[in-house]
Each structure stands twice: as structure tokens, then as C-alpha cells.
Amino acid sequence: MDIIKKNMALASSGAGKVRNRAPADVQITAEQLVYDANQRMLEKPQQPAVREVITDPEELAQYRSKRRKELEDSIRSHRYNVQLYLTYAKFEEEQKEFDRARSVLERGLDVDYKDTRMWNRYVTMELRNKFVNRARNVLDRVVTLLPRHNQFWYKYAWLEEAVGNLNNARGVFERWMRWEPEDKAWITYIKFEVRAGETDRARAIYERFLAARPTQDGYLRYAKWEERHDQLALARRVYERALDELHADERDDALFTAFAEFEARCGEMERARAIFKLAMSALPPALTRDVQTRFVQFEKQHGGREGIESAMLERRREEYAKAVEENALDYDAWFDWARMEEAGGDVPRIREVYERAIAAVPPVKEKRYWRRYIYLWLSYAVFEELGAADVGRAREVYATCLKLVPHKKFTFAKVWVMAAHLEVRQGDIGKARRLLGRALGVCPKPKLFKEYIDLEARLGEVERVRLLYTKYLQFCPHDVDVWVAFAQLETELGEPERARAIFALGVDQPVLDRPEVLWQAFIDFETEAGDADRCRELYNRLLDRTNHVRAFLDFARFEATHGASFENSRAVLKRAEALFKETGQKEERALVLRELLEVEQSAAAAEGVASTAALRQAEALQPTAVKQRRPIVGQDGTAAGFEEFYDYVFPEERKATGLKLLEKARLWKAKLKAQQAAKAKAEAATAAGDGGAESRKRPRSPADADMGKEDVEE
Question: How far apart are CA 66 and CA 512, in angstroms?
């Protein structure tokens, strides 16, 4: 009462009211509540079941009555729960009340006769308690009602065989086979007949089995069964029937491998080898890998070198076939496959591979995609000419290839050239000329011109060669090599005026890819002809067009050697030195001055004197190489450090650039070297005696001290 009064007081005062009706931050769902309740029930320790000990018949009868009432009530509440019937029947079986157990199971079967658990419990109960006839009756009922449930057929046949009633067991199997069950059922029937010693019956059942279910596994089982019973001829016949009666989609490499291994076990090596080859030709490429492996192993065990090589070829052939099947444009795989077949020497197979390869035309008409593809055609043509000795087919290959190539977009000079060479080897020069002429008309290329010119040159057709060179120069007037080759041809033919005219026409072209090569060839031609005036005129014309340092140096060397005039060479170099001094090209100027020094040295040697005024002047003009540093500027304009480089300082720049200290250092070094040389000479003169030793130990002279002081000041 006090508690009730206290709660009423709280309620009247408002202290128990909920003031914040907002949802809580953490929400609890109904599922979470149920889950927590179940977890607590699982965590709760289970009480061990109480074991009752019954010692009185009346108490036992009371227990049975109580338990039966509970089970009956459960069944009455849940009539379609099969587990309740099974539990009830098990209870009655434990009480040895078999009639009651059968009654319960029959009641359950009335509810659902398709439930296999009920039938299994029924049969198991009868067999466990050795009611064989009752079990037979139950099995007969169930196989009649549920003929597609094989477990009852197995039990029925096993029961009849176990009690020794073979005829009844055979009758059960016959009833079963009319339903055409799974393979395992037929094999079980066959094994039953074998255990009964009826081999002929077992063979007849195998025949019925293959008629009802013609599968590869069935044939293999039948053949192996015959082999186990030493019926090799019958086993071979089964394998042959499998190859004849099964469709190509119904057989795979396992059948061929088993057949070949069977023949190997029988000692028929040739038959086994033929079966392996048949498998590799009949099966699709995806299924022949295991056959290849088995064939290689077979050849290693039973074959010779040729057999092993043949097996390896078949294996590699399969690999190439798979590669080109995945990517038909894999021309490297086609090349490898074709070379392998060429090594084998099978001409029809080689042609088949080449035909399949050239059928894989690149889908894009760009030359870079066609390069490898064209070499397939060339290899095919070479094989037809040399390998198969069929010139007609080789011509057809070249002609088909030339029709296939889109010459308006790009062409392949090698195809034209090789086709022409084929005609030359066959002695048909006219046809070769027509091919090359057609090539130059459709798609002129430098290589075609060169090959055509080479062909005519070997044939000695000079006029044709000249005409081709003319056409070549009209096609490529900027190509220096053509001008040089044409001029060399005329020189070799003893036509210097024609060669000179060609050179003159070439150097007058407005655009040349390498003009220095043509000028040098022209100058060399005139030099070999011994015409110094023409060479000098060419050098002057060249220097009018370019101020390259190499042109000046070559001109000066020419004057010093072929012109035999050091004065002209000196004039050329001084002209170059003045030009580069004016333009500020220090490296070129340094090269010119070095060449001038060499010319003066050669001139002094020619005059037979050690030095001349011109040589001393040339020495004085030589620049000094000085190592300097300059800043490195990055791409973003920021400083990136310093780099060292060599710069040339010329005599007129030394005073202006403040290098007086460097000049004094050089003079001091020269003076020091002269004093050291004089000292060494004096020591050599007084090498013997104490005087020499005293002279070596004497102190430094005042002159030496003054020189050191001067060096320090400098």
C-alpha cells in the first residue's frame, strides 16, 4: 500500500512524466529484441534430461499409455508432419509392438506415400527385425508406386540376392530395366550376373544397355569388361562400333586414347599409331592436346626416331593451329608453322598452311600492317619455285599478290623485284623488263629504279641504263646518290665530258639532300682528271654558296698539295680567318688558325729552315683554350646550376678581357722551364767529384730569390 501511495503521489506531482519525446540516438528494432532473447536462451545452461527407471509392469504400461497419448495428440495437431509418424513408429518398435509400428507407418503412408523417408524406415524396420517376407512386400509396393526412386530397387535386388533367390533378383532387375534407369543400374545388373556366373547373360545385358543408352562411357565400360574376360577380339569390336555408331559430337579424346592403348597392350603398335593419327585428324583442335601427349609417350616407348619426330610435329602443329585460331593475324605463328611444314616436306600440307595464311588479309590498308603479311606471299612463292619446283604456281603466287596490294596507297618493291628475278632465272628477260617497267609506271620507287638499272647493267645495255638514270633523276632530282652514280657510270665508260656535264647539272639543282657529297664527288673527279684550274674554280663556286669551315680547309689543303702553292693556301686560310673573325665563330676560326699553323710548318720544312716570320706570326695568332663556367637556366626560367665549357681567347682579346695575369703566368712558366734546363745542364757537367756535390748543395742565389719574389708578386 505504501508503494502504491508513493507512485500515486509521484504521478500527481508530475515527476514521472516523460518530458523529452524526441527519438533516442540509438534505435532498437524488433529483430534485435528477438535476437537478444534467443541468444540468452542459448546461453542459458541446459538442464540434463531426467532418466526414469521403470521396474514395475504397471508403471511401464502407464508410461506407454502416457507416451502414446502425447504422440497421438501431436499427430492430431500436426497430421502432415512426417517426422511425428517416424518418431511414433520408432517408439513402438522399441517397445517390440511391431503391429502398432506398422499401423503408424501405414497411417503415415496414407498421408503422403511419396515421402521416401517413411518407406525407408518401414523397410529398415522389417529387415532389422528379420521380417523378410514383410520387407519384400513393402519393397514390392514401393517400387510399384515409386519406380523412379532407384534406392528401393537396389534394396529389393540386394534382398533377393542375399536370401539366395537369384531368379527373383533377376526378375526385380528385369522389372527395373524396363524403366531404362541410369547407367549405374545397368552396371549393377551386369555385376549381379557376373557374380552368378552368367557371362553370356551379362554380355546380353551390355548389348541392351548400349541399345538403350548409347554413350561413350558405356562403350568404354563394355570394351574394358570384354578385355578383363580375355575377349580381345570382342573388345576390339566394341571399340570399332563406338567409332562407327557414335556421332562426332558424342566422342572425345578419351575414346581414341583408350582404343590406342588397348591396341598397344595387345602388341598391335601400327594399329595404335594409326588410331592416334586418326584422333588428331578427326577431333577438333581443342580436344587433341591430351592425345598429342599420349602419342609422344607412346612413340618414346614403342617407336623410333621418326615416330617421335612425327609425334612432336603433330604436337607443335596443334599448338600453331590453336594460336592462329585465337588470332588469325598472328603472322609470326603462320611463319613458324609454314617453316615446320617445309621441314617435314609434305607439299600438300605446306600449300594448305600457306593458303590459310595468305587468306588472313590485314583489315586496314596501311603499309605497317601489311609488311609481315607480304612476306608470307614471298615465302610461298619461293617455296613453289625452289621447294616444289613448280615455276607456274610461283608465277601465279606473284601475280595474285600484285593484284591484292593496293598500289595507289602503297606498294612493296620487293614483290616486283622478286617476280622479275624469277623471270630472269627462267631466261625470259622481256617479261622481267615488262614487270619492272609496269612497276615504275604504277608506283615508282628508288629501289625499283636501282634494281632495273642493275639488271640492265649486268646485261650490258648501256643505253637502257642511261635512259633509266634519266628517268630516275626526273623522279628524284634531289637524290645526290643518283647523280654521283650516273656520273661514275659515265666515268667508267670513258666519257669524262658526259660525267662532267652530269656533275655540273647536279650542283646547279636548287634542292639537294646532301649537296656536300655531290660537290666533293665533283671535286674528286676533277682532281683525278688532274685539272687544278677546274678544281680551284669549283672550290670558289662552292665558297660562293657556303661559308662552311670544311670547305675552306679542303680548299687550303688542295692548294698545299695538288696546287703546290703555299701562298694560295695561306690566302684561302687568311680569307677564312677574316670571315670567321667578323662573324664571331670562334671554333671555326680556331680550326682555320690551326690549319694555318700546319701550313706554315709544312712551308718551313719545305724551305729547310726551323722557323720563319710567317710561322712565328701563325704561332702568335693561335688562341688559348680557357675553361669557364656559365649558368644553366631551366625550362621554367629558374637557375639550375652551372656548367663548364671551353672558350677560345684570341690575342687581340687578351688585354681587353683582363687576362694579363694569365699571360704573366704563362711567361713565368716558360722562364722557369728555361732555368730548370740550364741547371740540369750544369749538374751534368759537374757530375763527378765533390765539386759536383757542393754545387748540388749550394743555397739559392739572390737571383733565384728575386725570381720567387717576382712570382709571388705576379
Answer: 122
User: Where does residue 327 fall: left (phi above 0), alpha (psi -120 to 50 degrees), or beta otherwise?
Assistant: beta
Give the pLDDT band (50/70/90) at residue 460. Answer: confident
> Residue 338: left if φ>0, alpha if ψ -120 to 50, beta else—which one?
alpha
472 CB contacts (<8 Å, ≥6 apart)? 446, 449, 453, 479, 482, 486
Output the DSSP codes for 547-590.
--HHHHHHHHHHHHHTS--HHHHHHHHHHHHHHHHHHT-HHHHH
pLDDT digits (tens, 9 = 90+) for 322-358: 888 888 888 888 888 888 888 877 888 888 888 888 8
Record the cell numbers describing residue 140, joined without a space.
514390392
Percent helix / strand / coil, the chain, rounded to 5? 75, 5, 25
Cα–Cα distance between 309 and 133 in angstroms, integer? 68
Cell digits of residue 36 = 537478444
Residue pLDDT, tens place only, 45-99: 666 656 777 778 888 888 889 999 999 998 898 889 989 999 999 999 998 999 9
Specify whether the CB–CB gap between 252 and 283 falls below 8 A.
yes
Question: DSSP letter string over 332-382?
Answer: HHHHHHHHHHHHHT-HHHHHHHHHHHHT---SS--HHHHHHHHHHHHHHHH
**By CB neighbour count within 10 A (0-12 exposed, 13-18 middle, 19+ buried), where does 435 fall?**
buried
Q: Tell me the pLDDT of the chain averaged across its residues.
A: 81
- Cα–Cα dist 282/257, whole Å: 13
- Is the pLDDT confidence value at 605 over 60? yes
Domain extents in the chain: 248-326, 623-658, 667-686+698-714
C-alpha cell at 375: 612476306
pLDDT band for 122, please (50, 70, 90 cuts). Answer: very high
- Grouping H, G, I as helix, E, B as strand and the rest as coil, residue 259 is helix
| Distance (Å) of CA 384 to CA 352, 419, 619 | 13, 13, 74
